[in-house]
Amino acid sequence: MAQPIVKLNHVSKSYGDSTVLKDINLELEAGKFYTLLGPSGSGKTTILQTISGFTSVDAGDVYFDGQRINELPPNRRKVNTVFQDYALFPNMNVFDNVAFGLTLQNVKKAEITRRVTSALKSVHLNGYGNREISELSGGQKQRVAIARAIIMEPKMLLLDEPLSALDAKLRRDMQYELRELQQRLGITFLFITHDQEEALAMSDEIFVMNDGVILQSGTPVDIYDEPINHFVANFIGESNILNGVMREDYVVEFVGKRFECEDAGMRPNEPVEVVMRPEDLTITTVENGKLVVTIDTQLFRGDYYEIAATDDDGNEWLIHSTNSVPDNSRVGVTFAPNDIHVMRFNESEEDFDARLETYETDD
Ligand SMILES: Nc1ncnc2c1ncn2[C@@H]1O[C@H](COP(=O)(O)OP(=O)(O)OP(=O)(O)O)[C@@H](O)[C@H]1O
């Protein structure tokens, strides 16, 4: 990576007895869309605030464009934040809300008008300058908040769950718009969400957090296909997670059978967890199945059926199928070696990367 725009180096933060950031290391490249994804209370907002300057760190260093900024006050940092509740001024109209930062800087009136017009255009609100905030929909308020942030021409935009107040349809539309805006402006976005689908859809890179720790970072595809542990596998999408044993390189045993897989680099007979995504399982005849299951229930999800089934050992399975299968029928389930993903218990991201590298070079 060229010089990162943001670097957090061994950053920790506590409130009283509770450590909310534990030795965070993070590097962000300029011009990309990053997402912090994790459950409530995992420390996402706190990371954002160490970058915006609204929170000081107890240990470690925060760098922006190569400069250490631990002591730099928020108003001198080249980042702007878009908040979940938009934090608009209800007594000002749209124009004045968007112009606010420039007015504080005593920018000339003509330039303010030019820049507000351009910022409103960027978020598809041309002609809304005279509207009162109370006359706007949730999505429009959200866009005003974004216009107010981008008008300051920050090098980076921090977005703290900006879509969470919107209904499902508008939220989807805004996902497209935000992604498109980021690409058009070319500035770095650091976006917070606890919605895994949103993170997968929008990001160049995702950081999955839990309990003050970054568990895994990577592209959406990497994280979806190669979750490093139970928490990530469960949090990112639907999964079947089973206990298994790695018998040798490329051979894993679970549900009492041995299967060829693409994982290696573990001790022989090491206990592991096996992840299989519902969409990677295919329903077939009992004779052709690698497993045999009984169908419990199914839900029609629009473009597929989500099928719950149980195997003869009592393990529950979730399977996505484009065809409906009658309840209580016995069917076979098949899958390929690369549909099996093996995870070590409590593997760190470094160990995981090292293991991936070992068997990638073996091939
Ligand atoms: N000013 C504060 N004083 C004390 N504790 C705080 C403070 N700010 C945050 N915390 C605690 O730090 C932890 C992490 O909070 P943070 O807001 O970073 O989580 P989050 O992942 O952004 O959660 P959410 O998705 O709910 O916004 C929480 O347990 C929270 O209660």
UniProtKB/TrEMBL annotation:
Domain of life: Bacteria
Transcription among keywords: no
Keyword field: ATP-binding, Nucleotide-binding, Translocase, Transport
Single GO molecular function: ATP hydrolysis activity
EC number per UniProt: 7.6.2.9
Gene Ontology cellular component list: ATP-binding cassette (ABC) transporter complex
Domain ABC transporter: 6-236
Cited Pfam families: ABC_tran (PF00005), TOBE_2 (PF08402)
Name of protein: ABC-type quaternary amine transporter
Biological source species: Secundilactobacillus oryzae JCM 18671
Taxonomic classification: Bacteria, Bacillati, Bacillota, Bacilli, Lactobacillales
Gene name of the record: potA
